[in-house]
Amino acid sequence: MRALRSLLAAALLLGLCTARQEAGAQELVADLSDHLIAIDSEFTGADLLVFGAIEGDGDVVVIVRGPRTPVVVREKARIFGIWLNAASVTFNDVPAFYALATSRPPEEILDGDMRRLNEIGLDQLRLEAEPDTDIEDVAAYREALIHLRQRSGLFISEPGKVSFLGRRLFRTVVHFPAAVPVGRYTVDVVLVRDGQVVQSFSPPLTVDKAGLGADIFDFAHDDAALYGLLAVIGAALAGFLGSLLFRRP
Amino acid sequence: MFQIYLPIAEMSVDIFLLLGMGGAIGFLSGLFGVGGGFLITPLLIFIGVPPPVAVGSSVNQVVAASVSGAIAHWRRGNIDFKMGTVLLVGGVAGSLAGILLFNILEALGQIDLVIQLSYVVMLGGVGALMLVESGRAIIMRRRGGGRRKKKHVHTWIHGLPLKMRFRTSRLYISALLPLGIGFAVGILAALMGVGGGFFLVPAMIYLLGMPVSIVIGTSLYQITVVAGATTFLHAVSGQTVDVVLAGLLTIGAVVGAQLGTRFGAGIKGEELRGLLAMMVLIVCAALFWELVATPQETFNLSSLMVAP
Question: What is the fold of A2-209?
Fold first, then answer.
């Protein structure tokens, strides 16, 4: 049902695309199955369909990036027989989420400079270590950061995941794990031809908590004192009710 | 099967796993007459809850677990409110100090280590003491009889200043002593998310010399208030109290405790304590192993909070 709907939407877009093509240079249109990923109390992850149509030949690159925050990477070392966090490197502006899907391996589509410019590929991510770092082997920390984020499903690289239906309609599915951070995301759908970016399209995407969970989270952060007080009173009441409920005859 | 998203822990967990864990801990607390808070935090860490959230939510659950006991003892007049209040003044101060320490350690990236290490030391100590004590009691019972202890021993403790009279406990001792004991329990509550009964009860009996009949009630009174204060402080300082998590554990624990109490009625006390001691030592060994075994992953990440 959902697939049919998106196919219809893509066909509509294609119509739009051809209509515009006559007027000017619209060679790419794209959209998302949703512009809001809502984390409610039953949230276990979500699939986002990115679809669209292109005019003429070319490859499609889809990059989804989450809000950027600083991340501390710590390395454990054995001290007195116990493994504890020793050295650390702070990377500024690490995307909380990064997913890349392409129609062909990125190396075959774009040269190194272009990939670096557009952050296409996990090895091309702009991850800058804080300048006062006295660690020599920053590359190892960078690799660990990427590896750990990949393992938790927050960094994804899937060359070949963009598939074409016929020559003009394309689609790909980006999976967001349950632990996906909230915030404003950027989605870039890029049309590449002959090693050059021909056109790009950036539909909006927001990941936000919804429902009761969102209310609880907001309450805990916006009104921490009242939340704490109610948490204590609630627990005391629960314990009291429990003892009433099961009071021995 | 029935996943639920925990809003503060920011992860999705099987609802029956949490109810089951709460139930198992409630069952144990009903069976052994202990709070069980000391098992919740490690269990939550095992299933992947971030340690600070595990501590904040566990101490919230301790409030629910201890309040009904405190009320029952209050009805029977088994609480020395003056002693309890002195203890909890020390406890709230200790909790404040513990929260400060917690935040410093978190910024240094060592909070997980300190929580685990504290658990290894505490579980190891308590487990070993209980095992020895119950073993001795079993041997004594088989042999029959036993030595008689001297009722009141004077030590340096009785020379401390700021003496206070505690009528219900029939004691005239320095207020510094209960204040200090309370302070230590407050730190434990803030760092580990436990009520601290395992430490408080022996300290009240052996260090303060309180009559055993009012020790449990008074300690529950102190634990309820200190756990409440600690929950509040964690909620304010780090927003690490997950009420959904604490609530599910509480529901499981309330039901489990009833079953445990009924089940425990038919088993002898010493054997029961020996069993609990062994379980505590197993949890301790598992945590210790995690600290010394070569980790699969030597790197770990923590995202720094940025104001939206």
Answer: Immunoglobulin-like (2.60.40)
